[in-house]
Amino acid sequence: MEKLKDADVREVLLEKLQVKHGEEPDTLIINEMGVCLGQSRVDIAVVNGVIHGYEIKSESDTLSRLPTQMLDYNKVFDKVTIVTADDYLEKVKEMIPDWWGIIVVTNKKGQARMKYAKRGRKNPSQDPYSLVQLLWRDEVLTLLKEKGLHQGILSKPKNVLYERLVEKIPMVELKQLVNQTLKSREGWRVRE
Length: 192
Fold this sequence. Notes:
- A hairpin with a 4-residue loop joins strand 1 and strand 2 (40-47).
- The chain starts with 5 loop residues before the first helix and ends in an 8-residue tail after the last helix.
- 39% of the residues lie in helices and 24% in strands.
- The protein is α/β, with parallel strands linked by helices.
């Protein structure tokens, strides 16, 4: 039997997420979202009240990039669920943090079948600086202006703008602002 590929699993996962969130006007589903300035790219992100990353590890994948991806995802996402081939389940359990969720994918006559092995919990420790790096420069400038925090830094590099946001806005509010900004963004693939 032919191995399931990322695209096979992604298609089924996207269908399930559309069914779950399709009627929610305040929910955005993003394919291939870059995090940590593009160092890693989560397969699917769902942005609503939280930012939830879904990482696919199909039968055709390897786990070689997972340690780096984990470090990056742990900095940014409120929740993470790994969608893994049954063959990788035990190894994945050893690798991931205990707050991650796990969906197991089995190959039923060439069709991806999914079931939860473990529901995830909220991330206990996000990094505010990595979180604001999800924003584009003009989005950061808009937020700084709205909060009256833009004096003397409008022409500074992005890292200075990110630092100002992180220094001046509490994490709870920062998460809400990033969430709202991502949901209102247009032209996702124009600049990243």
